[in-house]
Amino acid sequence: MSDSVIYKTQGQIAYLLLNSAPVNGLGQAVRQGLSDGFAQASQDNTIKAIVVGSNIGPFCGGADIAEFSAGTFADKPLLPQVFNQIDASSKPVIAAIDGLALGGGLELALACDYRVATNKAKLGLPEVHLGILPGAGGTQRLPRLAGIANALQMIVSGTPVSAQQAQQLGFVDLVVKEGEDVITAATNYAEQLLAQQAPALNCADMPVDRESLPSDYFAEFRKSIERKTRGFYAPERCIQAVEAACVLPLVDGLKKEGELFLECINTPQARAQQHLFFAERAAGKVPGVAKDTQARPVKKVAVIGSGTMGGGIVMNFLNAGFATTMLDLNAQALERGVGVIRKNYEITAKKGKLTGQQVEQRMGLLTTSTQYSDIQDADLVIEAVFEKMDVKKAVFKTLDECCKPGAILATNTSTLDVNEIAEATSRPQDVIGLHFFSPANVMRLLEVVRAEKTSPDVIKTVLGCAAKIKKLPVVVGVCFGFVGNRMLEPYGREALRLLLEGATPEQIDRVLTEFGFPMGFCSMIDLAGNDISYLTRQAHPEVTQGDPSYGALVDSLYELGHYGQKTGCGFYQYNGRDKSANPDVITLAEQAAFKHGITRREISDQEVLERCLYPLINEGALILEEGIAARASDCDLIYVNGYGFPAWRGGPMQYANEIGLTNVLNALNKYKEQLGEYGERWFKPAPLLQKLATDGKSFNAV
Ligand code: 3H9
């Protein structure tokens, strides 16, 4: 038997202990080990019951995800075969679940007859997040054990439940108290079962209770998830599999589940979502930051600035239990800022997501100050003041004077040069960028901007803090806009230019939302405010590279005071929540086109999509070449988690991989030629893109 599963016996009980670090993924060797162990225990007449547990780490994190792209998930024995073998056992099988049972891990437990779990265990079927469905019996066995509605909810949301919840739902038999050993508990449980002559249970004999649900149950369920799952392929297949469980005997339901699983596994969506899974893990591995780099202790946090951004950042730290000081020189603004934080918590409490006591606990961690001397003992200081270099430098000079040695000094700038800010202090090694995304208490993405002299232990420390405040940190280098806003620039530039060439805001937004963005570029600018876009461009004239037509339409709207939603007019007109076309936009676009010598024409949807997306991808290639991002998947994480790029497309770089880099390159060259001087200026393919395309490689090769 392989070392991946340890087989041992004690008295009349056989143990199959998964032994494959780090999470007992169910790769081929583990499947083989389980199958062999089972056969051995079944044939041994002295063995009366079998315990399946873990020898190392958590119970089981599911199928080995890396095997899906490699194709080796289909190497025998197949996971469903092994689980069917377990389910059919004539001897009672008890799963001993420590830590977690996810995906195939839970399916393994469901194929057993009884389940014992530690009280900290999490049990779930998160396959839908990988673009697939539970393909080893989960969609057929869970409805039988936990009921259709509970199973459907768990499978389609992918959200795990606690051991206690699982017990209430009926698929955990015993929850083990804190500190108790789960294998010992499972052994005791097995002995009780044997003493009672309890039978082995076969899922095939368990009925599915469809009758207690209304006839339109599935139709209503589909409606309820429609908005949230727009564009995703797997959720509908999950539903179909559970529907099958309602009408088919287990053996046929499993067959149907297998077919649906295969329909999902070879889709671009499954590749994209699995790409993002590994991207998140890769982002934690930062070049130059060794595994053994010691993080600095962080107990006290200070945030400079009590505006929307400052307040949102503060909330993250309060939520995670950090004593936090909000500092603002303006006492009134400070009071307002505290009021907004309290109000936000109270709204959450009204929705039942926080108790009144939790609100007070969080508010109790907050102190305020108008004086820098009050934050001299802070371990981490985050500046969130007005986005102007002089203002930021003055803040950092003061922080340098007042903060204790070793304090980490972070800036929340989204565009400014972090090296320059760092040089305003005598300790540039302690300075770093922490670019939160608005609303800062909601958005998961955190761009961690590493300046030239930022020390590795500072990076290590902020990555640890980011995990505590439940953010997804992605480390990037210094350049205008870092990764996210820098890639956004060409995307927006082309959307605006297309308006001059003949597209309408409605067309652009439709094409982009059909692609999968929650909102098109024109609606997004209206939401954020045209004035922000205008003022940023004024502050960074270098971005336009002297192109006089750059952003011309935004300039016209800005001059008319049409800043977007906040003024009731921008690319669209707003009447409360109602949005309609702004007829002036076409006139303004025609005027700007005339002024800049642009001939208006009919623009195809394909051109809108290619011209918005391909320059963004090309910018990503330049970013990679310059080492601003360590890997293409980092750009993808930033785009999916900060800019609404559809997760099911895996991010812009993965999308390019999927459609082929040669196609992206050819299209860029086509527009370079077609668009004359404008094309020459803006459609030059990045050398890295050219090289990878020529070599037949993808961005994953970088
Ligand atoms: C499935 O089961 C399909 C079946 O229904 C049907 C099949 C026919 N595979 O996240 P961490 C690696 S689909 C491969 O940093 P944590 C991970 O890449 C599966 N590798 O630790 C990382 O490697 P590295 C359904 C995996 O403690 C290391 O383990 N299951 C897998 O923060 C540590 O991971 C899931 O979707 C895997 N299944 O979180 C669960 N799991 O060190 C996916 C982990 O080289 N996994 N790795 O970077 C998770 O959600 C989290 O990893 C987990 C641990 C909660 C388990």
From TrEMBL:
GO biological process, one term: lipid catabolic process
Gene Ontology molecular functions: (3S)-3-hydroxyacyl-CoA dehydrogenase (NAD+) activity; enoyl-CoA hydratase activity; isomerase activity; NAD+ binding
Domain of life: Bacteria
Residue span(s) of domain 3-hydroxyacyl-CoA dehydrogenase C-terminal: 481-574, 608-697
Every 3-hydroxyacyl-CoA dehydrogenase NAD binding domain range: 300-477
InterPro entries linked: 3-OHacyl-CoA_DH_NAD-bd, 3HC_DH_C, 6-PGluconate_DH-like_C_sf, ClpP/crotonase-like_dom_sf, Enoyl-CoA_hyd/isom_CS, Enoyl-CoA_hydra/iso, NAD(P)-bd_dom_sf
Pathway(s): Lipid metabolism; fatty acid beta-oxidation
Keywords from the UniProt entry: Fatty acid metabolism, Isomerase, Lipid degradation, Lipid metabolism, Lyase, Multifunctional enzyme, NAD, Oxidoreductase, Peroxisome
The reaction(s) this protein catalyses: a (3S)-3-hydroxyacyl-CoA + NAD(+) = a 3-oxoacyl-CoA + NADH + H(+)
Cellular localisation: Peroxisome
Entries under Pfam families matching the protein: 3HCDH, 3HCDH_N, ECH_1
Family under the similarity heading: In the N-terminal section; belongs to the enoyl-CoA hydratase/isomerase family.
Protein name: 3-hydroxyacyl-CoA dehydrogenase NAD-binding domain-containing protein
